[in-house]
């Protein structure tokens, strides 16, 4: 067992304090994982279940109220855990434990000890939470069968990112396939540490006072617009589907409409002024959330033009590909003449002209709204791919020689590189600042509420399980539950038939 280097009394106290903080952080992270899984599975831990004081009355309303309150308590507990995690992470990232260490070798020794101690404790905490989750799941009628069968819906949750938690705090990078390198260039420790933080990680940057103030002002405006839209739409009686009135582009609702929002926006402005008065604009070792090595790694990766870094389509991993392979997959998909056609020039101006021509055929009110929904300087859409890493196993299974089998998590990346297997990409066209960006959101305001009227509508897995719970008694023994998947769903929907289906559903809803 690693006890770390011999230390003096003060250095030993500092190390123990840091170790205690890391243990509390591990416990809090396991609590977050546990409550998040409970939320996904739609179950409530026993300690948060409210006992019905009116159970003898047999009133279902009382039981329903207790169940709803228990769910809210679970969600509040999750928020409190996130708040506690932020505090503990800030405390854990301080270097106070180094103050009384007089040599680099002792610093390295204590750092290794803290990493080992944290890793051991976090695995122990997560193992306990997994055991609790299995017990709670077995008590649920629907989930018990999934647990016994080892269904992926359950096992995927139980295979938690314990290593990811270790990585976040200790900057270690075990081979947990959060970073999938399909190139021939090896990654340095600093590059792996950086990529393990995820593509949504925000490195510390120099603060632009004007830009930050403008962003805060825009945020406050969106908050007020959100309140205005909800308040204007509230009614005690059902309202018919009507033409929504859009506010002018730079219009901001006035104050004194909602005292809570007024108090919130004033507080944000006060914090902003205080922050700008105290912050040091240049990142330093105290404020920077990246080490010098990670800063250098960030520069190296961003300047490598032969490298494409994308999030995996599923699973949250980071996939590194050569630009050549990425472009080859893009051309393979774009060469399908059934869905795509080559254009001789940018069609943005033609699309804008067509939109203006169509709006002239509409009513005056709609024409005014459309003007507000057209970007002043539109661009064409941006096509990109998200690699479907989860498909790589089936691709390798057909081409890998028997000597390289079996395929498992430990060799799948090296086999993909060896056989130069390119994962298929999920095509996505980014509509940001395109001619139809705001128009699409406008139309979505009409179509989104109609989805719930479709008999086959399923919101998510939890919604499916709830429906199954009510419909299973009507399914006869020996029946088969069948699912199907549509390849390239959106590109396979014919435009004319899709518009007809939307029109029929809209008319049907209006007649209700």
TrEMBL record:
Q: Please, which domain of life does this record's source organism belong to?
A: Eukaryota
Region (Disordered) residue spans:
232-254
Cite the PANTHER family for this sequence: REVERSE TRANSCRIPTASE, REVERSE TRANSCRIPTASE DOMAIN-CONTAINING PROTEIN
Q: What is this protein called?
A: Reverse transcriptase
Origin species, per record, is Holothuria leucospilota
